[in-house]
Amino acid sequence: MNLERVVFGFVTILALTFTFAFVSGDIDNASHHNVWVLTIAILINLIATGLKLGDRSQVGALLLASSLVVNVMLISARIIWIIKESHTPTGPGAESLATIISLAGGALVASFVTVAILVGDTLISRR
Amino acid sequence: MATTSELDRVSMVVLRYMRGPVFVLIIVYAIGITGMALIPGQDADGNVEYMNLFHAFYFFTYTATTTGFGEIPFVFTDEQRLWAILCVYMGVVAWLYAIGSIFRLAQNPHFLLALNEHRFAKRVQRITHPFFIICGFGDTGSLLARGLNEHTLSAVILDTDLERIKALVLRDYRVSMPGLSADSSVPKHLIDAGVQMANCKGVVILTNNDEMNVRIAVMSRLLNSDIRIFCRSSSKRQIEHLRTLGNVIVINPFEIFSQLLGMAITAPRLHNLNSCLVGNRKAKLGRPLQVPTGDWIICGYGRMGQWLYKQFILHGIKPVIIDPKAGEIEGAARIINNHADGDTLDEAGLDHAAGVVAGTDNDHDNLSILMCVQSKKPDAFTIVRQNRHENQIAFDATNATLVLQSSLTTARRVLKHLISPQIQVFIDYLREQGEDICDQTVQRLRAAIGDNRPHLWHVKLCQDEAEAVVEHLRSGKPLSLSELSRDPHDLDASLACMPLVIERGQNRIMLPHHNESLVLGDDILFCGTEFGETLLSATMNNSYTLDYLISGDDKPRGYFFRWLAGQQLDDSAHSSST
């Protein structure tokens, strides 16, 4: 067992679960989605991206790429939330919320890819 | 880069052919457009209105091509209509002429030939990795191409027979194998096939005509003074001629087979190892053939019979020869000037013969001799000559102890040279070392690969082939063979591969010890399994795996964990000093 793998796996899978936690619920119902969960998901993802920097292997490059995709998607979702929230005190309306959730859903797919690569790589190396 | 004649020729032919139609089109367009622009028309109010040049061109475009599109700014006057009629007839005729010319050109067989050569030359020029040229795509050529394909080596194929080249397209090679049906002794075709390209590593000449083979060899040597040439030839005069060209390896299948037979008599273990290395599926590693040295009968005293006869005499065996045209032969126990059949075989002493060679140039005769021997003396050692590859299934069914198929012997020998010239050097080395060393090598090889088929490959420790190893060695750290060939899944085990030869500059290290340190630029010949090659190549190109194999633990990969590992080291250094 190696510390890097443990921390790495923990952060990557945590990022996936937080994204999932944010996405689950009705797509146009603001009470099903917590902006705090989204913010924490972004934070964990940024940490995961940071941990992936510096790996020169092919798998490392792929992990970094998918992690960057997650960041782009989640951060754009958060920005839309900020813009739409400033007009209404009760959070974004149904239409803009749908956009936010679809973006976060895209991030969820990329998170799945990251975890799949991580698990696959670990299984292949069989050490 | 070689300038090929075909590349320029095709575009020139098209341009020259299309010159007339294009001129006619331009003139017809010019007349039509100018006329339309000069003829006065009328607008809706009856004022005189001229079409501008653009509108005239627009009108002519849809008229001449008979598109039948009818959008015009104003209703035409009669003058304009008259001119429009002229335009339609002129334009349509001109276009028909142009299109007809294109079709005529496309159906011209000479043009098709040039186009084909052009495409072929283009495909060859796009090859960036090392490749070989194979002239002659008969039995031997196709066997060789299949062997090269298994080792992911490319070849360019030339053959005079169009049907064979057509068949080439249908084969599913993993690598690019462009083919052209052309006379290989014509320099233009050899240039198109890339004989002057830097990554062309050799010309293999395997046509059925010895005269032609020599011509191709001479032409290749003239076009490229350094290239390695492999040429099949069994005529003595031509072999002499070929040797004077320099850097030519002459492949005489009968001579090779007689040498292999000699090897089987004096060094059976080495013969066994060699058969396995060249991919003989019948040979099992560690189970050598025992060639008896009793009385031998040779049926057929042709090219093969003569070579085998020499080999037998060399080893003190005096064979009986059966051949209708044998004549006087010095040293033979007995000569029977007749066809080989049941009676003559009995006369030659089949009942006490140790072995029989069925070596005529007719497959049916050979098979019937073989059947006769197997029914009368089933325990005799049988050597049979197979002349045609298409009879493979029949020969497989005979259970002859050794089958000489000249095309297969040639293809295997050439392939051995093309994979790596070190293989033959290694076999020659083992021959000098004797049977004990050979036996030890076989034991080690069996320990490494088990019952799998041996697969040969070589790796040069350079940036392209072994990136991680080069990086490791450049940083000044040592690397031994055993560290390199460790199994990443189990550090105590080793990959299914065994280094046979290391070529280091001018030196060759035969059967290197597993503690041998590697040096940049080493060219290592490995024997193992194909899976072993894949894993070894992965190790050689991934610095993390290589580090893991050497140190036994995974190095931190990301910046953060490397920084963390550095901190821990500092801390422990600090605490131990206080």
Structural class of chain A: mainly alpha
Give the rounded overall mean pLDDT of chain B: 85
Gyration radius over CA of chain B: 35 Å
Q: Could you describe the largest sheet of chain A, including whether it forms a barrel?
A: none
Shape of chain A: elongated
Oligomer: heterodimer
Strand content of chain B: 15-25%
Number of helices of chain A: 4
Q: What is the ordering of alpha helices and beta strands of chain A?
A: HHHH
List the helices and strands and how they pair.
The complex is a heterodimer of chains A (127) and B (578).
Chain A: H1 3-23, H2 35-52, H3 58-85, H4 94-125
Chain B: H1 5-38, E1 41-42, E2 48-49, H2 53-64, H3 78-107, H4 109-125, E3 131-135, H5 139-150, E4 154-159, H6 162-170, E5 179-181, H7 187-192, E6 200-205, H8 210-223, E7 229-232, H9 236-243, E8 248-251, H10 253-266, H11 268-277, E9 296-299, H12 303-314, E10 320-322, E11 334-336, H13 342-347, E12 355-358, H14 363-376, E13 381-386, H15 392-398, E14 402-405, H16 406-419, H17 422-433, H18 435-449, E15 455-460, H19 467-474, H20 481-484, E16 486-487, E17 490-494, E18 497-504, E19 507-510, E20 523-528, H21 530-541, H22 543-551, H23 559-577
Parallel strand pairs in B: 3-4, 3-6, 4-5, 6-7, 7-8, 9-10, 9-12, 10-11, 12-13, 13-14
Antiparallel strand pairs in B: 1-2, 15-20, 16-17, 18-19, 18-20
Helix pairs in contact in B: 1-2, 1-3, 1-4, 5-16, 10-11, 10-12, 10-16, 11-18, 21-22
Overview of this structure, please?
Chain A is mainly alpha-helical and 127 residues long. Chain A has 4 helices and no strands. Chain A has helices at 3-23, 35-52, 58-85, 94-125. Chain A is elongated, with a radius of gyration of 16 Å. Chain A starts with a helix and ends with a helix. With 578 residues, chain B is of the alpha/beta class. Chain B is 52% helix and 15% strand. In chain B, helix 6 (162-170) links the parallel strand 4 and strand 5 (179-181).
